[in-house]
């Protein structure tokens, strides 16, 4: 009798420990971000200063996808992705080159590819990017292009059922690259034993500093679940004014959504169409 009780407890314990791996629901999200067609009727002022988008708990799935596009282009012989130095290109014009898949191709882009590339995966172990052949919005993207709207990014990823506290802020960026406005910091000019330096403070010199790349679209999306699906999005859309100045328009939204429905986040400068679908449940 005692052995039967122990066996029942053991089986119950194994059942409990095995359940979470199969009980967690998984979803996939697909989105298209695009710039709105320019129109004279837009009269909103987007020059108001906004604070930086929060940077905590970020998950970047796109950079590897963009690098994969560059690596494939390099393998196909696209001269824009020739990894050789200028000297090597000049002296060894007919030679082949080696395409390193660890190269940061993103820094070479003036405009990021619309569709980042990933191998098609089908697991439920960790969050991952959807492969191009797993996307379903190609007809929608083509329709946007026919309407004169400019798709910036078409991608998606798979993710587990997560609470607001545990869900990451997935990094979303794309489009044109803009130069970061130059800034300067002042440092000591070095040792100076002249008579003048004894009468005044040490001379200083200005050093130009360069920040990270600025992309046309830059922001994050967090998707968490509490009975319903909730989407928290924060984006900066950057553009050049008629005077050639770089400005940024902020779009921040918190939305409750239903799986399977197609949703639209609207802004005078940009828009996002997205859908969250159940995955294997």
TrEMBL record:
Organism: Pseudoalteromonas luteoviolacea
UniProt superkingdom: Bacteria
Pfam entry (one): CsiV
UniProt name for this protein: Uncharacterized protein
